[in-house]
Amino acid sequence: MASSRLSGIFTPNIVPLDRHGDINEAETRRYIDWLIDHGVHGLYPNGSTGEFTRFTVEERRRIIEIIADQTRGRVPILAGAAEANVKETVAACEYYHDLGVRAVAIVSPFYYKLSPAGVYAYFKEIADHSPIDITLYNIPMFASPIDVPTVQRLAEECERVVAIKDSSGDLPHMMRMIAAVRPLRPEFSFLTGWDAALMPMLLIGCDGGTNATSGVVPEITRKLYDLTLEHRIEAARDLQYRLLKLFDAMLYSAEFPEGFRQAMRLRGFEPGEGRSPKALSQVQSLDKLRDQLQCLLAAEGFTSEPDSGCPIGDDVDNEDVARIVAGVVMELKKRGLA
Q1: Which pTM does this prediction carry?
Q2: In a designed cystine with 164, which of 136, 157, 194, 215 is the match (CB 3.0 to 4.6 A)?
Q3: Domain boundaries of the chain, sorted by first residue
Q4: For 250-301, how does the pLDDT look when each residue is reduced to its tens digit (9 = 90+)?
C-alpha cells in the first residue's frame, strides 16, 4: 500500500470534447499541463465534474490513460473508479492500479438507495479485492449517504480504505468523521468537495479538497489552501469570499457542470459542448451566465477587462461564511492553535 497521505487540492477536471462529442486528447493534455503549472496538488478525473456517467467504460479508461501519460508522475492522480456494480468497479481498480495512479475514488452506490449496512457491505467487498488504495466518496445529493459509523467501521477493518471525499458541505458531519476516525487511523485523509467551505473545512482538520473551482481558478484555490495552513486568517477569509462568488455562479446558474465548462472556456480552453442535449432556454441561460462569469473572472484579473455592463461592488451575502469562519477561529484560539 502506498504510504503518501492524500493532501492538497485535487482538481475534478472537465474533459474537453471535440465537435463530434469525442474526447479531445490534445486539448485535454494542454489543460492538464496548465493545471499542474498553476499549482494544483493533484488531479481527480472521472468525478462528478468530469461527468463520468456520460462516458462509456472504455472512454473512462482512456481518460485515465491520457492523464496518467501526460502527468508522468508530476502530481498524484485520484482516479474515479465507480462503475454500476462491484465486479466492474473492482476491474476499474485493477486497471487504474496498472496505470500507476495514486488511489481511486468510489462513489457510494447510486440509483438504488441503500441502508448504512448495504453501503458498508458494498465498500467492504470492493476493498477486500482492490489492489489500490480507495477513497470513499460521499455525495448524498446523488448517492446513498455514508454515515459516520460506516466510515469508522471501514477505516478500522479495511487497510485499503485510506480517505474520504465528502461533498455534503456539512461541517459538523466532517468534524464527527474526523473525531471518530483520526484517533484510530492518524494517516487517514479527509477531503472536502464543497468549495464554499474550503477554508473552514481546512481549519477543522481536513487535509485538502477536491474542488471544481480549481479547474477554473487553480491560482485561487491553491493560494486559499496555503493561506489557511499558514493561519493567515484574514487574507484567507477574504479569498474564501471571492471564491464563493465564482462557485455559486458556476454551480447554481446552470445545470451542473455546465457553469464550470463555460468558465473553463473563458480561461482560454475549448471544452466543447457537453453530452447532455440542451433546450433553447438552457442555451440562452448559458449565454447570460457567460457574461456574468466574464465579469467575475475579469475582477480577479484572469480575463480581459469587464465592460460597463458588469456590476460594481460586492452584492454577495457573506454572513454564513463569516459566521462559520468566526466560530472555527474562536474554537482554535481556545485550544491555542490560532
Answers
A1: 0.88
A2: 136
A3: 8-240
A4: 999 889 999 999 999 999 999 999 888 989 999 888 988 989 999 999 988 8
